[in-house]
Amino acid sequence: MNRYTISNLKPSMRAEIAQAAALLQRVFAPQGSWVTQAEADEEVAEMLAPERILRVALAEEQVIGWIGGIPGYDGNVWELHPLVVAPEWQGQGIGTALVRDFEVLVLAKGGLTIQLGSDDVTGATSLSGVDLYTDIWEKLRTIRNLKRHPFEFYQKQGYTIIGVVPDANGRGRPDILMGKRVGQ
Which of 54, 66, 75, 163 is surrounded by the most beta carbons within 10 Å? Predict the structure, then answer.
């Protein structure tokens, strides 16, 4: 089993910052997010703001995954944004470990809820390519995963679908909203 650690990504960690941005671009560019390296660099720089959370999973001094968090609603609600794990490390518990670590930090900061958006830009769910303005609740109730969309990963972590933003990424390309209460 490969060993890794999870820690804060700090502004002084230049090599790891570059690796985190490169990983973000590599994983998300095919889906239309952070298409250029400059966009990924900017995202990581924004996530380094002091009020935010940015945690990295490191194996042999290489960033193999990372998670970010943005406070909202006076710190009561935190947005999990983004979560990325290198494809060659997926399925080994790194995403789960990053989410659990993030939840502990959010709780320690007094957060009550974590929310996230999980875009469907590739037709990966039954919510893609349909009119979500008609019978939306039935479509959410009967959502199906067609192409390994991450909503099921989040459900396994205890997150619930709490809504959807139809056409968030273009016609027929929704953002699936998920949330979880932390603590008691």
Answer: 66
